[in-house]
Amino acid sequence: MNIGFIGTGNMGGALAAAAARAAAGNGRLGGRILLCDNDSAKAGALAARIGGAVVTLDEIFAAADIIFFGVKPQGLRALADESAALLAARISGGRTPLAVTMAAGVELEKFSGYFPGIPAIRIMPNTPVSVGEGMIFWCAGDGVSDAARGDFLAVMSCAGRLCELPEKQIDAAGALSGCGPAFVYMFIDALADGGVAAGLARSVAREAAVQTVFGSAALARETGKHPGELKDAVCSPGGTTIEGVRTLEERAFRAAVTDAVIAAYEKTAKLSH
Asked: Residue 118 belongs to what domain range?
């Protein structure tokens, strides 16, 4: 199976790396990882790192069994025009590829209007897929067979957790998990700053902040307990932690995070119109 990636930026590159790991551990996925990007040096560096091949757009459209579209929404129409003849030939020859689109705000109906006859899956991933700890929400369009779904899940098996959702919820999921890593990194940075202000060396504070967030997330996932319950377990009556929690509440920490997700969602809605 040949797996093609059009666009090897942060997200496209992370997904390509995950696909390469999956292919290495699954003989059924044996084939090539095909990479194409306007920045050939970037694509070349990724190819060297994951064992892929830098190819042209035409080669991806002619040979890839699954094509990941990692391009901006405004670039889809030009891409469709450029690929129309090759894709039409593949459809008529019984070699229709599966398209996987991650274009923000572009619904499957609109995507299929650009690429008629091509079964498509829409995904909303996040950058931690690059280390196998991502969150990918996905939905399948009409015409995606059970076999194609299985191939997609196999290719993304090393990316992290996958969750199928109704398409109407994909944008909300993206605002949370797609944008969420940036919010988490801001919290890690602020947590480390607090450690430095209290007297820790920057390197120690950063390591402690990262491990604290990592460990807390692992505990929440492994126990399945509500975050509020886990928070309460750390807060002793009249203790230091509850004083810090009180300060966060005074500064509207919860509201700020909630509003950030809502703002990201509303921006996605604007992009889709």
From this structure: 3-166
